[in-house]
Amino acid sequence: MNEITVNSCSELNETLQQKKNEFRKIFILFTGSKDSEGNSWCPDCVKAEPVVKKTITKYSDQPSSLFVTAFVGARDVWKSAENAFRTSKDYRVRCVPTILKYGTSLRLEENQCADESLLEMLLEEE
Question: What is the pLDDT of residues 11-57, one digit of tens each?
């Protein structure tokens, strides 16, 4: 599985436009941005991160899949009703962390993202 990190909604849109025909499956993790010391403001994101990393590693042999980590901004930016990830009709992110399979209605939200079995089901779903 290939991995990319983006730091804005516009960067995510651009990346998906470039990559959507290259990969059969695209997954997007929407997560709280990190400070200069590498710490996220989002406790659920901190809890999910090691599970997500471990699970993605299991799928490293899937070259036709892409996993995008999209940082949604600092806490105040994320909490704004105008946050681009919240208002985007393509993503409709209501909470972080959220992991979705691009182009489908399949998604995991908040504590579900820290559940390895749920994450594996999402990644394996055809």
Answer: 999 999 999 999 999 999 999 999 999 999 999 999 999 999 999 99
- Please, which residues have CB within 8 angstroms of residue 91's CB and are 6 or more apart in sequence? 9, 12, 28, 30, 85, 100
Identify the active-site residue in 9, 45, 95, 113: 45
Catalytic one among 9, 42, 95, 113?
42
A 10 A CB-CB count for 72 gives: 27
pLDDT digit string, tens, across residues 80-115: 999 999 999 999 999 999 999 999 999 999 999 999
Q: Which of 26, 76, 96 is nearest to 85 (CA)?
A: 96
Position 32 scores a pLDDT of 96
Active site (annotated) includes residue 9: no
Domain annotation for the chain: domains and CATH numbers:
2-124 (3.40.30.10)
- Supply the pTM of this predicted model: 0.94
Q: Among this protein's residues, is 45 annotated catalytic?
A: yes
